[in-house]
């Protein structure tokens, strides 16, 4: 048995041990957006540092103004070997509404649901399960061969779900340490449960919170209704105005920097369309809600959006209260594509709101992160090798697809460290990330580990070598 | 000193004792809309029953499917005397946001604020302070004369702030007991701190809660944004569509039954306009928000409204969560005037929402009470006597004004018991009812008691008698 085959065998034989590691990590409730869980975030970072040291990395927990980073290094076969920077995030989304979970979100289990074996729990997919596929691949490779096929630096952050406020300053301050030949990111989806995929494009994100203020107190709608400005009404009008009748966003200059996707790419996506039909059906919907005349894949991969993510104002408890509130708040996010400028989008959105304010109303804005979209070249050595490795593991060709979600780090790697990123992940659309009952496929975890062993081996080879 | 003068003297001399009664009632947190306070509502009812018995009424706490009623009777000078039914409500609004109160909302104090002596606390004005002006007047009259000038029935309910679900069935089931010659209601405002007022018109109310449902779970706005229906966006569009650019409500047939106010009445209101300027200024606003081209008094007294009282959906906690929620909810209320039909308004609103639902979205409606508007004849014996009594007490003529808020009971008294209602109250627009730091003017409480002694005496007199 070659050392490569022995790595794969080891990953098969020790799957239970790998799952125990993942369950231990899920058990730490590292919700980054809620200050009550700051201690848990640190605990998750410490857990990862210790685990990486046990594997053979030089690992450290690094302070930031927010939640800490984990940085680890392995020299691989030597200084001439290709150098990979692997990125993941150990923080997770809040778990509310808790009563919609079938089981404790932090007590992960391996169960069968709908005929599939799954790993349950908050972060099972996003991103603890995904990042552990890479960690477990490294553990097996070092155990079997004494080293890794590449030099490897690992960067785990703890603020990805809350806008990554510390990430850019940290990378800027540690450029020399973090710079590598390319980045590997495992925070994306497969095409379907049997077909791996490589993500060639990622949407960017602008997060905004806007509060409309009117009277200096909550008012009785009987005494004042009809005469006093109602911030809920004003907010509704503004948010209801964000799209025109064809689903296009109406903010001026919103589409500046949005490119039409090449026909060849659209055609390749069209071949995938049949599976995409299920995309909406499996969440109880039947037809696209966005811009008219575009496929679901184009809408979610190559078109920008304006989405309301939360509204609160007035009386929202049980029963009824006839109040005109003093203020109303909305959280709004924009998914960006291609060359859209996050700063311009934010500025134009704020102007859009200001222009629609009646007299007596003011708007207060709060920024929640921003990152441009990333569009990788459809052909590159990195993609070619990874595509080959994935095809060998899964037995089907891996398409190069788009990604609806944002992974801000990928843009940062491009602009700050001059690195392309290889986006390979094993999530599925029905993993319910950010929702109750998040899960990760056991198959994704198992073959994900094997895939990384193959990819890292392929990337470590010089031209003409073979495993 | 006549017995009538001795009543007024007693009310002056024993003001502190009257305030102690009021403080004890405010101390009971009878929030009707919140099930956690059901016990406190019952406690308030029991407190009133006991107090009324001590005064000399035959009083009882009466069960309903919700919070109990208090019913009390006094035979006055005999079976031929005019018979008054006095109505008030012992329940209060919720106190959130609690951190905006300067002091405990249930620990009432008599303090000076902005040069005025006030009674603080939730319910100080709405309606505990107001109803106690009548109770204290009765206490003094019975103590001084051994009886009351009229036969008096008292009805206190505990669900006024949550739509009065039990009131109509209770009145229907107890018509013979509750029927009187006329009703007295003390839940309205003075024109200003020095000028009492009689309310000739009251707006009705329709309360609706609507929840828009889309996908069967919360969604990640990255994966699904641009393709999946967003209930917050749908809700915003619908609520933003409720008014046209001139501030008119756009629901079909909404203005059916709305009459133009007679020019003579508008002219009398116009004379009051100067004080009305302060109406908006004192809440930090400067110009009317509603229908164009109408005075503030007309907007709040004689025009209907559609107001959003609460919206909640998506992520509303600290930080940001890029979610497309499965649902979004709004509480919406309509103030009605003249002959608008509450059932038609509700039906037309629901149709308005349904018509605007995109495919894949459904709307779930929940009813929160409904009552028609009341418009009393501008001239009647009841009004004339009360106006005279108020003028004597306050030394200025009491105008007959409109009322923006709803007092559903008044319509019920008309339809079920065939009684007109005399609406006299001593609240002020800046009493902050339904808001933090609710208060009642000490002067309102004191002169309110004296006013009821005068009014009840005037109403008990046959033509030609004098006190």
From TrEMBL, chains A, B:
Pfam families: M20_dimer, Peptidase_M20. It comes from the Bacteria. GO terms for biological process: proteolysis. Keywords: Hydrolase, Metal-binding, Protease. The keyword Transferase does not apply. GO terms for molecular function: metal ion binding; peptidase activity. Coiled coil: none annotated. Residues 201-360 form the Peptidase M20 dimerisation domain. This is Peptidase M20 dimerisation domain-containing protein. It comes from Notoacmeibacter marinus.
């Amino acid at each position: 048995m070659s050392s490569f085959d022995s790595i794969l065998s080891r990953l098969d034989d020790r799957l239970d041990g790998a799952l125990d590691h993942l369950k231990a990590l899920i058990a730490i409730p590292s919700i980054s957006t809620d200050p009550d869980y700051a201690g848990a975030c640190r605990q998750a970072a410490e857990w990862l540092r210790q685990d990486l040291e046990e594997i053979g990395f030089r690992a450290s927990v690094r302070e930031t103004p927010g939640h800490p980073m984990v940085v680890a290094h392995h020299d691989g076969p030597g200084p001439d070997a290709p150098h990979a920077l692997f990125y993941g995030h150990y923080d997770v989304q809040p778990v509310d509404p808790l009563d919609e979970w079938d089981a404790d979100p932090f007590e992960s289990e391996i169960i069968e649901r709908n005929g599939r074996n799954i790993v349950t729990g908050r972060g099972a997919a996003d991103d603890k399960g995904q990042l552990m596929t890479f960690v477990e691949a490294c553990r097996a490779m070092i155990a079997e061969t004494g080293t890794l096929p590449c030099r490897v630096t690992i960067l785990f952050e703890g603020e990805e779900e809350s806008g990554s406020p510390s990430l850019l300053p940290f990378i800027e301050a540690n450029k020399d340490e973090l710079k590598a030949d390319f980045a590997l990111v495992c925070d994306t989806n497969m095409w379907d449960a049997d077909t791996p995929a490589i993500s060639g494009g990622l949407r960017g994100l602008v997060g905004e919170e806007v509060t409309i203020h009117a009277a200096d107190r909550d008012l009785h709608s009987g005494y004042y209704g009809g005469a006093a400005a109602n911030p809920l009404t004003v907010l509704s009008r503004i948010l209801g105005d964000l799209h025109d009748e064809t689903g296009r966003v109406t903010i001026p200059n919103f589409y500046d920097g949005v490119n039409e996707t090449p026909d060849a790419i659209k055609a390749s996506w069209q071949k995938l369309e049949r599976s995409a039909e299920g995309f909406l059906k499996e969440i109880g919907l039947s037809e696209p809600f966005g811009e008219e005349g575009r496929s679901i894949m184009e809408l979610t991969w190559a078109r920008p959006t304006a989405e309301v993510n939360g509204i609160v104002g007035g009386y929202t408890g049980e029963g009824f209260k006839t109040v005109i509130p003093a203020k109303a708040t909305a959280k709004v996010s924009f998914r960006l594509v291609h060359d859209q400028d996050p700063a311009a989008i934010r500025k134009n959105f704020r102007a859009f709101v200001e222009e629609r304010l009646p007299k007596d109303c003011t708007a207060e804005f709060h920024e929640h992160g921003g990152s441009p979209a990333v569009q990788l070249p459809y052909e590159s050595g990195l993609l070619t090798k990874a595509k080959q490795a994935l095809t060998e593991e899964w037995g089907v060709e891996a398409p190069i697809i788009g990604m609806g979600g944002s992974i801000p780090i990928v843009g940062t790697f491009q602009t700050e460290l001059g690195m392309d990123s290889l986006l390979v992940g094993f999530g599925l659309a029905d993993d319910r990330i950010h929702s109750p009952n998040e899960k990760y496929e056991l198959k994704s975890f198992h073959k994900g580990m094997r895939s990384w062993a193959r990819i890292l081996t392929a990337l470590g080879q010089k031209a003409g070598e073979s495993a």
